[in-house]
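Troubleshooting log. The previous run stalled partway through. Resubmitting the same two chains, unchanged.
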Amino acid sequence: MTPNRRKVLSLLPAATVAGIASPAIAQTNPQIRWRLASSFPKNIDIMWATSTSISKYISEMTDGRFVIDTFSANEVVPPFQVLDAVAAKTVEIGHTPALFYFGKDATFALCSVVPFGLNVRQQHAWMYSGGGIEQLQTLFNNFGVVGIPCGNTGMQMGGWFRKELISKEDLKGLKFRTAGLAGTVLAKLGVVPQQIAPGDIYSALERGTMDAVELIGPYDDEKLGFHRVAKYYYYPGWAEGTAMTHLVVNKPLYDELPKSYKVALDVAAAAVTSFQLAKYDASNGLALRRLVAQGAVLKPFPQDIIEAAYAAWKEVVEELYAKNPLFKSIHESQQAFLVNNSIYAQIADFSYDAMMFRLMRSSR
Amino acid sequence: MTPNRRKVLSLLPAATVAGIASPAIAQTNPQIRWRLASSFPKNIDIMWATSTSISKYISEMTDGRFVIDTFSANEVVPPFQVLDAVAAKTVEIGHTPALFYFGKDATFALCSVVPFGLNVRQQHAWMYSGGGIEQLQTLFNNFGVVGIPCGNTGMQMGGWFRKELISKEDLKGLKFRTAGLAGTVLAKLGVVPQQIAPGDIYSALERGTMDAVELIGPYDDEKLGFHRVAKYYYYPGWAEGTAMTHLVVNKPLYDELPKSYKVALDVAAAAVTSFQLAKYDASNGLALRRLVAQGAVLKPFPQDIIEAAYAAWKEVVEELYAKNPLFKSIHESQQAFLVNNSIYAQIADFSYDAMMFRLMRSSR
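Second attempt completed without errors. Output:
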């Protein structure tokens, strides 16, 4: 009870006090105003909507007492510095792909995606029911934040290539814009991984100073127009079977939140993860159809590239295991989950999808 | 503002008033206590946990002001009467598979699952981002309730059979316990669909008065021991590519809820849907491995049974379209979503899963 409140009550007869709002509410629901920095610009609109949706639901569920103002990439924090800004309390909360920080600790990649890893549904199941959220808190806490899974783009594509790939020899010297541990894998195959801002990619592809780019999937890629300058669009995206993003919250500030606000954040983050994935799932097929109509050429990766990338990934894993025990322990947890989940998934969902694709083709 | 509150404020100087809890809180957060009837018994533990999780999160997010007491099947309402009980205000809210009510209106099946329909992820995407929730409110409102998607078991199996199926001829006269529109489809193929309480299935299979049963999937089926009396376990479950359940809320009571409680229900329901699916995804693979170790024999349905079931389903759809415009309109919406989503799903997630299964097999 605030001193003011106590003073007021002492002035009033008991019968009148009963009509006043319960003091417990005033204590457990403090007015809080936070700033959220997103790693995404507003034109990556489904990702950006994840931040504004979190803000909206939290405000609505708390009757406007817990307010989160949202800022897109570079409005207050550059996209790759969201984690640091939250840890430093420059902003209280951020929305970011944790894999952006794999240079600080490779374990961050396991929050989002690693090559040849969990698919979208397995990533969610491992997070919510396979100990994922709990195991990753060690990592997030080491960097002064709490991490809450929030958002998934769904499976991403293998990338746009100016020239057709015939075999793994075609990877030698290829200048490829890619992210996360995929770059480490591809470097072993002779690729020269590139870091370049999204706004500069188109002209680099057009001028031929870059040969290939991997960004997200059909819905977002279409806006950037890569299909006009690098028409070969490769699948499956072996490096990104899922692509999860997180809310990162300054840990001391999170710890001070009343329980009701903590639960609201957790629950809203899980709901918005489903809503974001649903938007991508409702948008990617239509975008892919438009891209193909405009000349994009869909190609499966040659089998020897898949095999070589898988072998290179196993080497990368061994190197990481040798120097990072946390990565080892959490990657092993994901791998065990993948194997156990696949026992059912392959005769259930996978065989159902195979049946449906076959029936849809035959009934056209 | 309540009259009491107004009276109190008029006695106080303005500076002191500022220290009092906002009157908006007292008005917008009324104390509410509801009863939830589940269609599930407590030993179908993952489904039952969906009800108790909703109750827990809603209470925590509202600081104990919106309380939902949970009752399992038959504690206050029989499993197939949850919808009626909620409409009649016997209980305020229920958790139930809407397809239980397809006898009232076949459109209810589209809330949960129809044969050869959406898979799990497509069902969620259609609900959240394909207009599903909105379109289905017409149906729910016709029956005096509001429907909120809440829970999914994931893809279900095709069933346990006492004898191996060699061709569609083996379906003639088969006494098969199944649910929803699958029974209508199978009747066209000569099956005699059975309604029988779960507790009586085991002995009916053992005595041979029933030939086959379809219930849920490995995790739940294992507890009932069907593999000991009907060892052939068939896939893919063409009748249940997804299996969604709903919260149904008495409509007048829902409409009276403050906005913050409505949003809390929506958001918690979406989060718990992910959590429930995650638990099944973490459990079904391990259960399937145990079942096979105990003698269950996994079998794909013969191709001619799949083809015959698909043809029969198309007949059922035509019959339903002719007599139920709401079913037609909503099924067409789902089918359009299925086709558009599949354009990307088959080169993205499906080809990723195919690659992973192949790599896992070759690296054993």
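Takeaways: The CA atoms of residues 47 and 347 of chain A lie 33 Å apart. Residues 1-26 of chain A have pLDDT under 50 and may be disordered.
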